[in-house]
Amino acid sequence: MELYQLRSFVAVADERHFGRAANRLHLSAAPVSRAVRALEAEIGSTLFVRGAGEVRLIEVGAALHKRAAEILRNAESFGQYARELRAAPRGPTLGGTI
Amino acid sequence: MELYQLRSFVAVADERHFGRAANRLHLSAAPVSRAVRALEAEIGSTLFVRGAGEVRLIEVGAALHKRAAEILRNAESFGQYARELRAAPRGPTLGGTI
DNA sequence: AATGCTTACGGGTCACGTAATGATT
DNA sequence: AATCATTACGTGACCCGTAAGCATT
Questions:
Q1: Mean pLDDT of A57-78
Q2: pLDDT at residue A88 in the model
Q3: Which of A1, A89, B26, B48 is deepest in the core (most CB within 10 A)?
């Protein structure tokens, strides 16, 4: 499992549409579909029902959506925090000079 | 930023040694070094001091280590939770039949 | 000289985009 | 017919391992 798969999963879950999810990720629809398929294969269960002109989360997918979104938020927060620390890299190295 | 980079970062931080981190990840030392280097480049700051026969986290690295480990734990938990849900996929689809 | 991190190099995997296909309205 | 997800196909990026380089002890 990799973050790019979770990004596609969450984007589709939010947009309820593979095309819009792809636009949001600056990708074409094909890799988004593949990423979700790969995640579903790894999990062993589908996450969406595709049909009726709508993409909808099934129960398993809805439960995992919250967790996936949390992981992505943490990952984004990680990068943001890192940049903040870089802006203020005051203080000695851990354990003193090496 | 991708999970494989965080895996290398956390492994090196835990082991304080690129070689042992590589063994733990079933990789050679080279890709571990590259993954950490890439993360450091993306962040804009080094994370370790290499030298004196020891690898040690600097302050920035220590702060990010905790966050990175948490992300990896969440990612692992995600997979585990997914398998649990697959084992008991009872219940209707969200919003009823499509 | 020995240990260990890093960089160079070549190869194989895989994620991407375009285009064709299938399914549904 | 139109829309949309999926699959096929070729290409480019990139991650990996091996090997050479460099620093420190």
A1: 96
A2: 66
A3: B48
Identify each DSSP E strand in chain A by its residue range.
48-51, 54-57
Find the angle CA(A34)-CA(A36)-CA(A39) to the nearest 5 degrees.
Answer: 110
Indicate the residue of A1, A6, A78 with minimum beta-carbon distance to B67: A78
Assigned domain for B66 exists:
yes
Q: Does residue B23 lie within any of the structural domains?
A: yes
For position B53, which CATH number holds? 1.10.10.10
A38 is a domain residue:
yes
Give the domain range for residue A78.
3-89
User: Per-residue pLDDT tens for B6-42?
Assistant: 999 999 999 999 999 999 999 999 999 999 999 999 9
Residue A15 lies in a domain: yes
Structure-token pair, residue B5:
């980079």
pLDDT at B92 over 80: no
How many structural domains compose chain B?
1
Neighbours of B40 (CB within 10 A): 18
pTM above 0.90, yes or no: no
pLDDT at B89: 55
Q: Say if B57 is an interface residue toward chain A (CB within 8 Å).
A: yes
Question: Stated in angstroms, how far is B49 CA from C6 C1'?
Answer: 14
Q: A79 to chain B: which residues are within 8 Å by CB?
A: 1, 42-43
- Is A72 a residue whose pLDDT tops 90? yes
What is the amino acid identity at position A60? Answer: V
Which chain C nucleotides are covered by protein, judged by CB under 7 A?
4-8, 15-19, 24-25
